[in-house]
Amino acid sequence: MDWDDLRIFLGVARAESLSGAGRRLGMDASTMGRRVARLEHAIGATLFLKTPQGYTLTEEGARLIPHAEAAEQAAAAAAEATGREAGVAGQLRIGAPDGCANYLLPQVARSLCDAYPGLEVQIVALPRVFNLSKREADMAIGVSPPETGRIVVQRLVDYHLHLAAHRDYLDRSPPLTSREDLRHHRLIGYIPDMIFDRELDYLAETGVEAAAISSNSVSVQMQAIRAGAGLGIVHDFAIPFTPGVVPVLTDEISLTRSFWLLRHADDRASRRMTLLAESLAQAIRREVQRLEAKVAVQT
Predict the structure, then answer these.
(1) What's the Rg (C-alpha) of the chain?
(2) Where do the H-state alpha helices sit in 143-270?
(3) Which range of residues forms the domain containing residue 226?
(4) Cβ proximity of 163 and 249 under 8 Å
(5) Where in the numbering of this chain does the HTH lysR-type domain appear (predicted)?
(6) What does DSSP assign to residue 264?
(7) pLDDT digits (tens, 9 = 90+) for 5-40
């Protein structure tokens, strides 16, 4: 059985489509389909059912998954042992909520690429939890640790959030000296039914029941605040990127949350992935501390 065919099988199983797997592996969908068919012929079993939603594993396909993943780990270990991954080259796909992806990971990616010139960093910014079992990402950053799954979890860093507004908004709005004054102001926040993690339910901290302007994207919320549309709870590390936006009511409304690094359990055996995980963790800690220090000076 050809390992490369198993690699393609895993790609299709994780992406649940030929085109999605092809984009990840750098092949066209027709080639992916031929390789899957070749593997099915070699083992004498149908591995996928094609449905309107995509490719679904059959029972035979599901039974092949752990063996294919074992071969994947063995291939990675062999590559490391023979030095083909010297210099930590290749692709690293990082999944993260959009606040982290927009305001932290670009600088972190620069740091990683400076340290490892052969590295290709891909940042996937999505307001949801990533499925590492399907290899949607090599590593993911979460705002809370998962309760299930074969995942290695590492606490990265605490970060802070405060109510903030643009100076233009504050200059033309009623006075804001206490939490009670918020009833006279327009709030910006998350769409309630699109909050994918309870740690992101910030609005309850203000005592205001509903936001006048809402989005599932941190970046959209911040741009609305920057435009002077209202007040919102934002990451301190995002404030340096938005001139004119300042924290308010810092003594009354202050939140602390944590970022967690999530990795597939099988990756613990990979020297490359362990090295990249530690480098990523260190870079994120440094960047949060650097940006929050700028906000501390303002306040």
Answers:
(1) 23
(2) 167-172, 218-226
(3) 158-255
(4) yes
(5) 1-58
(6) E
(7) 888 888 888 888 888 888 777 788 888 888 888 888
